[in-house]
Amino acid sequence: MDTGFVAHNDSTYPNLIQLLEEMEIPRIDSDMSFAVSCRKTGYEYSSRGVRGFFAQKRNVLSARPSKLLGEIKRFNREAIEALARPTWESLKLGDFLDEKRFSQEFRELYLVPMAAVWSCAPRAVNEFPAATLLRFFDNQFAEASQLVTNSNVMPGKRKAGDAGLPATAGGIRQDRQHRMFEAVGLAHYDEFFQACDRLPAPDGSMLMQTITMPDQELKEYRLRVDWIQAYIFPGSELAFVGEIQRSLAQVTKMSLMNLEDFGMLYAKTLSMWRERFFQKLSEVQALGFDERFQRMWDFYLGWCEGAFRGRYINVAHKLIAKNGAGQVLPGDPGYVRQAIGLKQG
Question: Model-level pTM?
């Protein structure tokens, strides 16, 4: 990997760590932070201590940061208490927030951005199952408490910032998109790719991984909300290659240069996940996940495996580059040799 980073830790990514060691890819210790910039209000803050939370000097004398921090602390406390109560299992997150009387500002400035980081479409946060998201936050907090630092892959040419933002004003040659493209939504393709068009250097490129459907399904797909959209990834929409190319042509100076699908391999992965899920079922039950949760994930993994095997859906890597980019790209003759530093024969 030339650029970008892969944040991970030693306890939950043993296979990735083994791969990095076999490939002799060095790692460096790092930490992680969270930051928000609200276009509607202009309010900004980060988790980098007091200076980060009061990043805007005008907020030092404002009551807004103190109120927001108070609600964050209350949310963390009441979320943990809610997980111990079976009655919250069937509630949507919006119902939980209404019941606990959290402000709209707390939702927009903290919870929606936080949920979006973990691949939940912002417009669907209120519909997300409360127990699922709260349990996820609780697990992340427990993990963070045990691990003081995360590890990053040692960057090569240039290190890209979080969420794909450029680390320097000169632009970046290659970038990795660190969130689910499916959470962007079909209505926002143009806005998304306009941002992507601004980031790379003149000869820059980007790599995307997306789950796709055949373009012929687009019209019918937009008229319905399926089970996975309702219960697993609320608000998400699968990608359509035709719509991606339309958007690229309409609002950018970039083009799709290479596409490699691997849906059948993904089907095999899902089969292994489902098999291991049932092998570890006693451990799942010990964590407090009930029969309804078990059936939901059995259905989800099984349906997805069948959909990939039947080519109803697919998954693909899409290489997108600036028009006229002069650099050698993945898929071009000689790219592999250049990437690993071998001389041309």
Answer: 0.54
